[in-house]
Amino acid sequence: MFESGELRLVILRLLEEKPRHGYDFIRELEARTGGAYAPSPGVIYPTLTMLEELGHVVAQAVDEGKRMYAITAAGRAYLEEHRAETDGAMKRLDLRNERWSEAGPVWRAMQNLKTVLRGKLTGASDQKTLLAVADLLDDAAKKIERL
Predict the structure, then answer these.
(1) CATH class (in words) of the domain with range 6-102
(2) CB burial readout 21-40, b (16+ within 10 A) else e
(3) In the chain, which stretches have pLDDT less than 70?
(4) What residue segments make up the domains of the chain, in order of their start?
(5) In whole angstroms, what is the distance from residue 126 CA to residue 107 CA?
(6) How far apart are CA 68 and CA 49, in angstroms?
């Protein structure tokens, strides 16, 4: 979804709009991509920690231990230095949302397939079943390619 370092810039750009909780970033990115991308907490929180260590954001404990993040003057300066790169990443988010909105039924079907495959592959499947699943996926790919 993002090139190296772009998630940091996107987070700073979102903080430029208003202070946010960690999960707000996940929800906002998911909304801006029409559900096509929702970063995990395991991606967002380490990035926020790094930005805090760099002095680009500050976190304050509010509401039952939740932390509210805000951009600092150093963060604003860094964001300004990388404005073109940031604008490019934000534009890709909007374009992705546009494309995925049009392909909503396909997106839903892809997510359904991913869920089913995870369940099938997580279980103790025998080699025969795995080969059958691979054949089905190969057949579907060939049919879609021919459309």
Answers:
(1) mainly alpha
(2) ebebbbebbeebbbebbbbe
(3) 1-2, 95-104, 107-108, 111, 124
(4) 6-102, 105-146
(5) 29
(6) 12
> What is the C-alpha separation between 100 and 35, in angstroms, rounded?
8
Find the length of the chain: 147
Instruction: Report pLDDT for 10.
Output: 94
Q: What is the pLDDT of residue 30?
A: 83
3-state secondary structure the chain: CCCCCHHHHHHHHHHHHCCEEHHHHHHHHHHHCCCCCCCCHHHHHHHHHHHHHCCCEEEEEECCCEEEEEECHHHHHHHHHCHHHHHHHHHHHHHHHHHHHHCHHHHHHHHHHHHHHHHHHHCCCCHHHHHHHHHHHHHHHHHHHHC
Amino acid at the residue 58: V
User: Which pLDDT belongs to residue 1?
Assistant: 64
Cβ count within 10 A of residue 10: 23
